[in-house]
């Protein structure tokens, strides 16, 4: 089975080809225009998706050395994400599938992130249950996963996502968008104990997160400092802020392991690219004898390889989407039995 994956839920226009479960090409065109605005502008994103989608798909096919007629299915993100951005990918996929007389499947973007773990490590998909921390710019969720399509929510952010905490924090610090990599770079050689930022929800019952108080604490901290002090100590402030976000993520993840007794832990989404988080995860998993998985760096942030792989699994299981499938900007893994899908 040769599947074309398409991803256009936010500010990356991406296409990839997976043949018999193996990644053959992976093209990501990141829309740099948003850097100018310090965040993603939805209207700008959808217009650029329209410009990029044809060349990006053509490049994915060319670098996989696959002709369009060889495709056996198309997988496309249909939510969650920006409405105007999702529409571009979904309509393109529907049109192409219709023209080629092949099936297409709508894939949940967050399920795609989870599947990024299996791109280079298919053996990890062995059917046993695991905990998955999904940390992106729009979501911070802890799931118990029994198998493809079987997700139970353990906890979620009650306000901002972890990636959003990085993006908003970076903006307050005068750093570029996206904020996660900008803070990570600024924090290099900084003293993470320099400012004692709060760790919201740490030690509380359940597995929920909260990040908006942390961002507010940074705001008031910066208000009390002179611009010279901020400039001189930027790396220390960035390191302290980064540590606070990572501490919160680790605390809730550890709690999820305690509550469920599961020993397999998966992490995915853009924030999983963070080196401090990866280091802390490695140390913890080593000391607790947990099986830990996070994707290679290039598959943490948005890409279509993860969509193609998740879509391949659904198509192989006989799942199909009908042309009635609509975008679902607020889609949750919990409503996987979603509209517009049928099983052969
Ligand atoms: O998964 P993703 O590419 O897009 C969404 O689905 O949202 O995640 C993007 C988020 C942004 O908030 C970005 O700041 C964050 O991931 N991010 C990072 C790093 N790289 C990307 N956060 C912390 N450290 C990083 N190295
Ligand atoms: Zn994403």
Quick gist of this model?
The chain is of the alpha/beta class and 344 residues long.
Number of helices: 9
Assign the CATH superfamily of the largest domain: ATPase, nucleotide binding domain
* Order of helical and strand elements: EEEHEHEHEEEHHHHEHEHEE
CATH class annotation of the largest domain:
Alpha Beta
How many beta-strand elements? 12
User: Can you summarize the main beta sheet?
Assistant: 5 strands, mixed
List the strand order in the largest sheet.
3-2-1-4-5
Structural class assignment: alpha/beta
How much helix is in the residues?
Answer: 40-55%
Associated small molecules: 5'-O-[(R)-(carboxyoxy)(hydroxy)phosphoryl]adenosine, zinc ion
Mean pLDDT: 95
* Euclidean distance between termini CA atoms: 16 Å
Strand content: 15-25%
- How many domains would you count in the coordinates? 2
Principal-axes shape call: globular
Radius of gyration: 20 Å
Describe the structure.
- The chain has 344 residues and is an alpha/beta fold.
- The protein folds into two domains: 2-115 and 299-339, Nucleotidyltransferase, domain 5 (2-Layer Sandwich); 128-294, ATPase, nucleotide binding domain (Nucleotidyltransferase, domain 5).
- Helix content is 41%, strand content 20%.
- The strands form three sheets. Strands 3-2-1-4-5 form a five-stranded mixed sheet, with helices on both faces. It has a five-stranded mixed sheet with strand order 8-7-6-9-10, with helices on both faces.
- Strand 4 (73-79), helix 2 (83-100) and strand 5 (104-108) form a beta-alpha-beta unit.
- Helix 3 (109-115) crosses helix 9 (305-316) and helix 4 (162-172) packs antiparallel against helix 7 (227-260).
- The longest helix is centred in the last third of the chain and has 34 residues, at 227-260.
- It binds 5'-O-[(R)-(carboxyoxy)(hydroxy)phosphoryl]adenosine and zinc ion.
- 5'-O-[(R)-(carboxyoxy)(hydroxy)phosphoryl]adenosine (KG4) is lined by residues 10, 136-138, 163, 166-167, 178-181, 184, 269-271, 273-274, 301-302.
């Amino acid at each position: 089975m040769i599947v074309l994956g398409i991803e256009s839920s936010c500010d990356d226009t991406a296409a990839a080809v997976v043949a018999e479960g193996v990644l053959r090409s992976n093209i990501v065109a990141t829309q740099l225009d948003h850097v100018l605005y310090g965040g993603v502008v939805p209207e700008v994103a959808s217009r650029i998706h329209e410009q990029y989608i044809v060349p990006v798909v053509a490049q994915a096919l060319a670098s996989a050395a696959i002709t369009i007629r060889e495709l056996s299915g198309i997988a496309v993100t249909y939510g969650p994400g920006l409405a105007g951005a999702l529409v571009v990918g979904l309509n393109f996929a529907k049109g192409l599938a219709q023209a080629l007389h092949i099936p297409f499947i709508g894939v949940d973007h967050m399920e795609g992130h989870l599947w990024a773990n299996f791109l280079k490590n298919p053996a990890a998909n062995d059917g046993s249950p695991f905990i998955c921390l999904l940390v992106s710019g729009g979501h911070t969720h802890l799931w118990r996963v029994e198998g493809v399509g079987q997700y139970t929510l353990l906890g979620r952010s009650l306000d901002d996502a972890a990636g959003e905490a990085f993006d908003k924090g970076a903006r307050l610090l005068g750093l570029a968008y996206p904020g996660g990599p900008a803070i990570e770079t600024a924090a290099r050689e900084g003293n993470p104990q320099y400012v004692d930022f709060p760790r919201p929800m740490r030690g509380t019952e359940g597995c929920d997160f909260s990040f908006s108080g942390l961002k507010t604490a940074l705001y008031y901290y910066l208000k009390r400092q002179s611009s010279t002090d901020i400039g001189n100590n930027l790396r220390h402030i960035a390191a302290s802020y980064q540590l606070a976000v990572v501490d919160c993520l680790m605390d809730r993840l550890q709690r999820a392991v305690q509550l469920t007794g599961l020993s397999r832990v998966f992490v995915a989404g853009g924030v999983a690219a963070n080196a401090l988080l990866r280091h802390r995860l490695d140390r913890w998993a080593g000391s607790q004898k947990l099986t830990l998985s996070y994707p290679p760096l290039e598959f943490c942030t948005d890409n279509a390889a993860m969509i193609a792989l998740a879509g391949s699994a659904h198509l192989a299981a006989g799942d199909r989407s009908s042309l009635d499938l609509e975008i679902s900007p607020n889609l949750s893994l919990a409503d996987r039995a979603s509209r517009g899908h049928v099983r052969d």
